[in-house]
Design goal:
Length: 120
């Protein structure tokens, strides 16, 4: 499967904003200027990330929980390397209160909330 990623690429030098995830969320992300992929497979995620990695473009990527937990080798590589490609996750529409971000524990400890929970 080949994507025509360049037809969706903004002017060079700018940061690409991408949303890959639940089709129910794509309209909202399109309205605020994101490139979107509705219900993409892990293979599509890998292809998008590979293209961004190879082109050395800056990117801000929002993933749904399903893709963020997919075990994609390219996603793990991008997370490990850091730098130009920033990835964040949005909660599922059907369980927004069950969502925990990867840095929640660090934020809790910095704000003192972690110590309150352990004492409660």
């Amino acid at each position: 499967m080949s994507l025509d990623l360049y037809s969706q690429t903004p002017a060079s030098g700018s940061t690409r904003m991408l949303f890959l995830g639940d089709a129910a969320l794509t309209d909202g992300f399109q309205l605020i200027g994101f490139e979107t992929w509705a219900d993409p497979s892990e293979e599509v995620l890998d292809e998008v990330l590979s293209e961004l990695h190879e082109s050395r473009r800056n990117a801000f990527i929002v993933l749904d929980t399903r893709l963020s937990e997919s075990g994609s080798p390219m996603l793990e590589r991008v997370r490990r390397e850091g730098g130009r490609i920033l990835i964040t996750v949005v909660p599922p529409l059907n369980d927004p209160n069950g969502f925990r971000c990867g840095i929640d524990n660090q934020v809790d400890s910095l704000t003192g909330n972690g110590s309150l929970e352990s004492k409660g």
